[in-house]
Specification:
Keywords: Ribonucleoprotein, Ribosomal protein. The protein is an alpha/beta fold. About 30% of the residues lie in helices and about 10% in strands. Strand 1 and strand 2 form a beta hairpin.
Length: about 450
């Protein structure tokens, strides 16, 4: 149930937008359940009933003489235009893939254009739309500017039904502070996209307030020239105007006699409708629409169990072929394998570079060890060298008296003497041949030579 207004009475405003002092009892239809799903469905079905049947001509695409060439000519078997002497001859025809051919599944006029709607369902949607028009939040969500409107639903006196000049209607809307909603319509005027521009539907604009009256005493002539403002009789309420586009929340201005007639039209939950046969207002499924307050009440909280604190979240599965961390979890040895593989590939590349350098006659690049940074350490000071004394066995030549000593050139620097060869022990040296044995061998060799001669 929609709690539209806490008060049971509605104030009536006169033509000067002042509270006249009279009040009207809030009709029961404003407390009817709001069902946007039913409103949207019924609006869609009703909009189908205003469609005009259309179809393409039965002769379209077949107003030519064409025949297939058959097989064996290396062309498609589509029917082709007969004759010659023109570009059209030999071209494909009839098919939906051909230029100048018919469309696929040509439209027919015996399509099911209109829809039948349940009467009770239409009335339910209408009650929901009227109930939603009394809730300021839903009206503002539809885009209407009602910030300064004195009351919702807005009811004016029946004297407004006697207006027949647009000037009077504009003054009334300005005094009711509803002219800002009309200004929104002026700013929203746009050119329609598509071919509707050529079909007397050139411009589009948003919608303004809807004036609902009981008797037309010139009121429609006063409001019909204001863009966005529409007029509707309370005896012929239309869902297309109360919920345009299938969305509830139209800004409605009611006359006093029109809003008093709603109880007679749709009845209440205690009394049936007087103008509709055997009809009552739809019963709401819930007596209180504040579901959050119901769930948090003590009566329900005592019965329901506590919420589960264990939250099981779906683990993110990483691809081990692309994610190294996931691969390390599955196979810790994979890091070593990867490291060894990279070392093998680096060695192979090094050998290849050395081979190319050798072929080109270049010095192969050797891997130099990284130079370590030198520390600031002072070098040790070498001890002072002692003067070398000549050996005692050597005799120092003395200078002869009276003869000057010849100046000799500085001797060349002596080369470093090689280290003495290791001394081999006597037992290890081969024995030298004796002189007597050599003489004996020479004598024998001479005797042999003499015999041969």
């Amino acid at each position: 149930m929609s709690k539209v207004v806490a008060r049971p009475l509605i104030s009536v405003y006169n033509e000067k937008a002042e509270a006249s002092g009279t009040t009207v009892q809030l009709p029961a239809i404003f407390k009817a359940p709001i069902r946007p799903d039913i409103v949207n469905f019924v609006h869609q079905q009703m909009s189908m009933n205003s469609r005009h049947p259309y179809a393409v001509s039965e002769k379209a695409g077949h107003q030519t003489s064409a025949e297939s060439w058959g097989t064996g000519r290396a062309v498609a078997r589509i029917p082709r235009v007969r004759g010659g002497g023109t570009h059209r001859s030999g071209q494909g025809a009839y098919g939906n893939m051909c230029r100048g051919g018919r469309m696929f599944a040509p439209t027919k006029i015996w399509r099911r254009w209109q829809r039948k709607i349940n009467v009770n369902q239409k009335r339910y949607a209408l009650c929901s739309a009227i109930a939603a028009s009394g809730i300021p939040a839903l009206v503002m969500s539809k885009g209407h500017v009602i910030d300064q409107v004195p009351e919702m639903p807005l009811v004016v006196s029946d004297k407004v039904q006697e207006y027949n000049k647009t000037k009077q209607a504009v003054v009334l809307l300005r005094r009711l502070r509803a002219w800002t909603d009309v200004q929104k319509v002026y700013k929203s005027r746009r050119f329609r996209a598509g071919k509707g521009k050529m079909r007397n539907r050139r411009r589009t604009n948003k919608l303004g307030p809807l004036v609902i009256y009981a008797k037309d005493q010139g009121l429609t002539k006063a409001f019909r020239n204001i863009p966005g403002v529409e007029c509707l009789s309370v005896n012929k309420l239309n869902l297309k105007k109360l919920a345009p586009g299938g969305h509830v929340g139209r800004f409605c201005i009611w006359t006093e006699s029109a809003i008093q007639r709603l109880n007679a039209l749709y009845g209440t939950w205690r009394e049936k409708s007087k103008l509709k046969s055997d009809y009552n207002l739809p019963q709401p499924i819930m007596t209180g629409t504040d579901l959050a307050r119901l769930l948090k009440s003590d009566e329900i909280q005592k019965v329901i169990r506590r919420p589960r604190k264990i939250v099981r979240r779906a683990a993110v599965k990483r691809n081990p072929l692309t994610n190294m961390r996931a691969l390390m979890k599955l196979n810790p040895y994979s890091a070593l394998i990867k490291k060894s593989a990279s070392a093998v590939s680096a060695a192979r590349l090094k050998r290849k570079e050395d081979l190319l350098a050798k072929k080109r006659g270049l010095v192969p690049v050797t891997d130099k060890p990284a130079e370590q940074p030198k520390k600031n350490v002072q070098a040790p000071v070498p001890p002072a060298a002692a003067p070398v004394e000549p050996p005692k066995s050597e005799k120092v030549p003395r200078k002869k008296a009276g003869k000057p000593v010849k100046k000799t050139e500085d001797p060349e620097p002596m080369e470093a003497t090689p280290a003495p060869a290791p001394v081999v022990p006597v037992a290890a040296q081969p024995a030298a041949p004796e002189p007597q044995a050599e003489a004996v061998t020479e004598a024998k060799s001479k005797k042999g030579k003499g015999k041969k001669k």
